[in-house]
Design goal:
- By secondary structure, the protein is mainly alpha-helical.
- It folds into three domains: 16-106, Fumarase C, Chain B, domain 1 (Orthogonal Bundle); 118-206 and 230-359, Up-down Bundle (Fumarase C, Chain A, domain 2); 362-451, Ribonucleotide Reductase Protein R1, domain 1.
- The protein is built from 19 helices and six strands.
- The chain has helices at residues 16-22, 25-28, 32-48, 54-73, 85-97, 99-102, 110-143, 166-191, 210-216, 226-231, 234-260, 288-311, 326-349, 354-360, 368-377, 382-399, 408-414, 428-434, 443-457, and strands spanning 151-156, 159-165, 193-194, 221-222, 268-269, 351-352.
- The strands form three sheets. Strands 1-2 form a two-stranded antiparallel sheet. A two-stranded parallel sheet has the order 3-4. Strands 5-6 form a two-stranded antiparallel sheet.
- The chain is elongated, with a radius of gyration of 30 Å.
- Keywords: Amino-acid biosynthesis, Arginine biosynthesis, Cytoplasm, Lyase.
- Belongs to the lyase 1 family. Argininosuccinate lyase subfamily.
- It catalyses: 2-(N(omega)-L-arginino)succinate = fumarate + L-arginine.
- Residues 365-433 form the Argininosuccinate lyase C-terminal domain.
């Protein structure tokens, strides 16, 4: 049986080596649900426009349902010479209906067909990813009340900086993943424009209704320029970028928790169900899920680079190079979703090592900035207060004590303006209580944010 895309001007068959080289059925078969749905919408539009009869439309749609079922069950034979999923579906239709099946491709090219199918798949994958991000946000939010009493050291330059409440830290990741979800929502606006009906490159002389098929396929509208649409893969690049940003957030979180799980930090204990052992060292509990999350993020970022390079020099309009856009994006979605599926239960199941954290929370002079701001509130210029607190920290380091352990007279040797009220801001707990600004780790501000996100993210049900 000759491929529907072959024959006519061709005087000889395709070399078998070319068939193997050019096939995409090995990866684009996952578009079959979208291809069949798009084909049924196209058939109904053709019937409404009088380009096929109602009876022919019903035969086509019924046969496509049968083909979908065979693809669901894996019983439709895959043939390299048919190249892609679109030709497999069409050939199966022709095998069943003959010339009626051949009418389906009226006013349609594989260029707009592939673009439409891919847009529907990407739209669905973005929404699935958004749901997984929501579950991860809820996992972080779900820790906040139980961990409210825990103070963690916040770092800059990987050096201890200031104290923060544990829920303030958890909500930092809720914020990051919210921006990812907002990027997804914005990306969907451009993905969700229907390509069907632009045909190969210039449109069609046949009386079709693009708005009808767009509405039937739940698109927000139609693409406006046939030439642009035939070549456009901006929606692929943008999706790959959104996934790459998610990957950076996941990788940063994984790196942090890998460090936190070490003996040197000792902040967390990951659930053993998400760790593995060593083949030679029996004591090891390795955070492999976190390490693989960090490692797999590189693939997602590399896929973005691949797609940018794939499209950077293509002239208008369609070029076969664009067949290669699917494996990188499929892989990026698969990778991010697999990471997110494990991230939420890992976050929920990880234990804070409270005693270890509390035992070291005064290390690093986390209350130094709060002491400086106490002096500023008393009227001292910021630069002078900064200098004096530096000298006080130096004194504490020499004595090997915390700032709160320095006697008042020693503090006054450096800053005579200080009085007994300074005790109210020394120590990590007092420093936490001293914060006031919106967005800070002040307990009342953190509680406001917990309430905000509890409302924003809703119940799991």
């Amino acid at each position: 049986m000759e491929s529907p895309s072959r024959g006519g001007v061709f005087s000889e068959g395709t070399d078998s080596r070319v068939e193997q080289f050019a096939e995409s059925i090995s990866f684009d078969r996952r578009l079959y649900q979208h291809d069949i749905r798009g084909s049924q919408a196209h058939a109904r539009m053709l019937a409404d426009q009088g380009l096929i009869t109602d009876a022919e439309c019903e035969s086509i749609c019924g046969a496509l349902d049968e083909i979908r079922l065979e693809l669901d069950n894996g019983t439709l034979p895959m043939r390299i010479e048919l190249e892609d999923i679109h030709m497999h579906v069409e050939q199966a239709l022709i095998d069943r209906l003959g010339d009626v099946g051949r009418k389906l491709h009226t006013a349609r090219s594989r260029n707009d067909q592939v673009s439409t199918d891919f847009r529907m798949w990407v739209r669905e994958a973005l929404r699935e990813t958004d749901q997984l991000l929501l579950e991860l946000q809820r996992a972080f939010l779900g820790r906040c009340e139980a961990d409210f009493d825990v103070i963690l050291p916040a770092y800059t330059h990987l050096q201890r900086a200031q104290p923060v409440l544990a829920p303030h830290y958890w909500l930092a990741y809720v914020e990051k993943f919210q921006r990812d979800r907002e990027r997804i929502a914005d990306c969907i606006k451009r993905v969700n424009q229907c390509s069907l009906g632009v045909a190969a490159v210039a449109g069609t002389s046949l009386p079709i209704d693009r708005q009808q098929t767009a509405a039937a396929l739940d698109f927000d509208g139609i693409t406006r320029n046939s030439l642009d649409t035939s070549s456009d893969r901006d929606f692929v690049l943008e999706s790959a970028f959104v996934l790459s940003v998610i990957a950076t957030h996941l990788s940063g979180w994984a790196e942090e928790w890998i460090l936190w799980s070490t003996v040197e930090y000792g902040f967390i204990k990951c659930p053993h169900a998400f760790c593995t052992g060593s083949s030679i060292m029996p004591q090891k509990v390795n955070p492999d899920v976190l390490e693989l999350t960090r490692g797999k993020s590189a693939r997602v970022m590399g896929n973005l680079q691949t797609l940018v390079l794939l499209t950077k020099g293509l002239p208008l309009a369609y070029n076969r190079d664009l067949q290669e856009d699917k494996p990188p994006l499929f892989d990026s979605f698969d990778t991010i979703q697999s990471c997110l599926q494990l991230a939420a239960p890992l976050v929920a199941g990880t234990e804070l090592q409270r005693e270890r954290i509390a035992a070291g929370i005064e290390d690093g002079y986390l209350d130094a900035t709060t002491l400086m701001e106490h002096m500023i509130r008393a009227g001292m210029p910021q630069r002078r207060a900064h200098h004096l607190v530096g000298a006080i920290v130096g004194e504490a380091m020499q004595r090997r004590v915390s700032l709160s352990e320095l006697p008042l007279d020693v503090l006054q040797q450096h800053a005579p303006e200080l009085d007994g009220s300074v005790r109210e801001v020394l120590g990590s707990r007092n420093a936490i209580e001293a914060f006031q600004s919106e967005g800070s780790t002040a307990p009342e501000r953190v509680r406001e944010q917990i309430q905000y996100w509890t409302t924003a993210l809703g119940d799991k049900g």
